[in-house]
Amino acid sequence: MAVVLMAVMLMPVSLTGCPSKARQEKGQAKVELGSAYLVEGATEQAIATLQEATKIDRRNIDAWNQLGMAMMKRGEFEQGEDAFKKGLRLNENNASINLNYSYFLLKQERWEEAVDIQFEVF
Question: H or E segment at 80?
């Protein structure tokens, strides 16, 4: 009985743990494709692909960063900010996401917040 109870207690940990290497690679491939769509101006395709990437690997900071940029480009500022903040929760010192989030804030004329981020990180 104790063995069964222990297995049941450990099950949630195994279901919510780190994604496998294959999932990480698949997620990163989606990030690269979504980023290419964004560069080419295919914002809607970029968003759909980057959202897929975040579902495949919720810990991929690049996916959240690029999704934030894509949402900003579409004018979806609330969703863009949510994406940046999710990425920052994964690593608040990541230079790339901090730089892009600062740019996002500047585009909205949120000067003080943007400057604060720059002083905190850089």
Answer: helix 77-90
